[in-house]
Design goal:
The chain is α/β, with parallel strands linked by helices. It has 12 helices and 16 strands.
Length: 349
């Protein structure tokens, strides 16, 4: 029998034949990220958001370089140990990753899944290892408030008003080392992935990304539970990437419509990243919450993995979410599709 038929489950999921181990991670944050409740858990905080660079884009590349270097150091990994490097960001032609990873002589795959890129990278990395195409891979993503505003909205000097539905792009990068073998550094294991489908509900307001991404998150959660034959109660937490306050409520309503209730175990990285205790504090600090490729990745490294490693949680469903827009599509009046990719993370035995 063809073994490949045994790992495909349902329409969108794959159950890995052997667990893929998340062997190390590191997160680098900016000055705003330092002020949040997760600030002390970052491996490195930039002294200023320029990160010693001459441009915001170069600064973001430096965030990536630092995060990847730290993750490799923590995992005791050399460049020659890594078969692939999977990286992505929000900028045109993924320039933060292209320049940030150029100094690492590792076979490079540039990815774009908007703010879901962390989930995409970890999913593909897991499949490469499970398929026998690699023993160890590195995954890194990043975002930067200033470079994202320059790319998608207005230069900071313009001083534009931000609606309450808008999210704040997180200035951060996180890197992860995945491996086929459990070792002394291993934090948790990845046992399954569910690849999302694009969901386009016709929303054109790029300042309301939570509403754009919520349908994709709902679709992926439903597909995952159906494919694996599981219920919400099989997870200690179901953690979305960066829906923020608006997207969180939209997600809960969409799932309730199909008889699925996740409120008691749902978390959103966009709300957690700055440590908001309540809606008022969240509004004051970041409008609807945090977003960007660095948002879910940083919360994964600083919070989620720590709780899995301490066995406070046994199994979580982690699904970063993305709004797949470009400045060209926005200026041409197109709607914005959403995407969400899910991974099952389990604590070590």
């Amino acid at each position: 029998m063809d073994d490949r038929k045994l790992v495909q489950i349902g329409e969108q999921s794959v159950s890995l034949r052997s667990p893929v181990y998340l062997q190390a991670s590191a997160a680098v944050g900016g000055t705003k990220e330092k002020k949040g409740l997760l600030g002390s858990f970052f491996d490195c905080i930039a002294s200023d958001d320029m990160m010693g660079a001459k441009s915001w884009e170069e600064a973001e590349s430096n965030f990536q370089k630092k995060a990847l270097s730290l993750a490799m150091e923590k995992g005791g990994v050399r460049t020659e140990d890594l078969r692939y490097l999977l990286a992505g960001d929000l900028l045109g032609q993924s320039m933060a990753s292209s320049f940030g990873c150029a100094s690492f002589p590792i076979p490079f795959l540039g990815l774009y899944g908007a703010c879901s890129t962390c989930g995409e990278a970890l999913s593909i990395g897991s499949l490469l290892i499970d398929g026998g195409y690699a023993n160890q891979v590195a995954c890194v993503t990043s975002s930067h408030f200033a470079s994202a505003e320059k790319e998608f909205r207005y230069p900071l000097d313009y001083g534009s008003q931000r609606p309450l539905s808008a999210s704040w792009t997180v200035s951060a990068s996180a890197a992860f080392i995945l491996g086929a073998q459990k070792n002394a550094h291993s934090i948790c294991k990845i046992s399954a992935v569910t690849t999302g489908k694009t969901a386009d509900y016709g929303i054109k307001d790029a300042q309301n990304m939570g509403a754009i991404m919520a349908p994709a998150a709902a679709d992926t959660i439903k597909a995952h539970l159906k494919d694996l034959g599981r219920s919400v109660q099989d997870y200690d937490r179901i953690i979305t990437g960066d829906l923020g306050l608006v997207g969180k409520e939209a997600l809960l309503q969409l799932l309730r419509r199909d008889g699925i209730e996740i409120k008691d175990r749902h978390m959103d990285c966009g709300i957690e990243i700055y440590g908001q205790a309540n809606e008022t504090e969240c509004r004051e600090n970041s409008n609807a919450g945090g977003s960007g490729c660095g948002c879910g990745a940083a919360v994964l490294s600083t919070l989620i993995l720590r709780r899995l490693q301490k066995r406070e949680w046994s199994r979580v469903l982690f699904l970063p979410t993305g709004a797949m827009l470009s400045k060209t599509s926005f200026n041409e009046g197109n709607s914005v599709p959403g995407i969400a990719h899910a991974l099952v993370l389990e604590s070590m035995e």
